[in-house]
Protein: Alpha/beta hydrolase
Amino acid sequence: MPRAQANGLELEYDTFGDPSAPPIVLVMGLGAQMITWEEGFCELLASRGFHVVRFDNRDAGLSTWFDELGTPDLAGIMAGTAPAPYLLSDLADDVVGLFDALGFAKAHVVGASMGGMVAQQLAIDHPDRLLSLTSIMSTTGDQSVGQVSPAALATLTKPVPETREEQIELSVANYRVTGSPGYPATEEYLRRKATRNYDRGRHPVGMQRQAAAVVASGDRTERLHDVRIPTVVLHGDSDVMIDVSGGKATAAAIPEAELVIIPGMGHDLPEPLWPEIVAAIVRATARA
Structure:
């Protein structure tokens, strides 16, 4: 796959559809690689008349890792006594750098989870570069909404095992907790997904630095009031990773945002829901 020189680093990316069609850039979440946007989803979106781009965020997958910055002091960052290695605004600048590298004056942007936060930050920092905004299973940074459930937190904060096999098993366990109860995935699918992610570029300390960026970037609510970009917000009513209140708060903060609550959806993108998710994205693009 190609790499783009963007914002002083290298971003691994992939494309689908007609390069002359309107561009849609997909931004994935915390520690997640671009392959979490599955090929079938990207192809379905491309079939609606878009040039679809997915990429690895900094510190994830095959894009530039920032290991020289070390392991962040998350407790200190939460207390305000330690700096974060970088902020969500830096990840947003990476996306703008990708736009520039690919020759996009403007693009539609779709973000999931932390990627939704990055997309929101893009709308705040670079409104002139966005055609539309889709925020999926994300939140505003307001600590009173979008909380993680105790069960999910307990699973996701387990120490990272040493061996490949143990890390794959942990990922499968995490997927079971955070996935969509209304659209349960098979054991075979989860194990294949976990194995592919590990072998391609699993990077736990990079995920910690991304988490530090989320914590240190604070509440975007007031700044989201000024966003005037066509926006749709999607959230599952069964999300244990980011409670549905985060999606509701996001839609309430952005003027004229469309809110779509999907029954039975957790913190993933199950294939049976792809047509509904793509249709919502297309509605936002049509408003642009």
User: Anything to note?
Assistant: The radius of gyration is 17 Å. The chain has a mean pLDDT of 96. The beta strands are 3-6, 9-16, 23-27, 51-55, 107-112, 130-136, 231-236, 258-262.
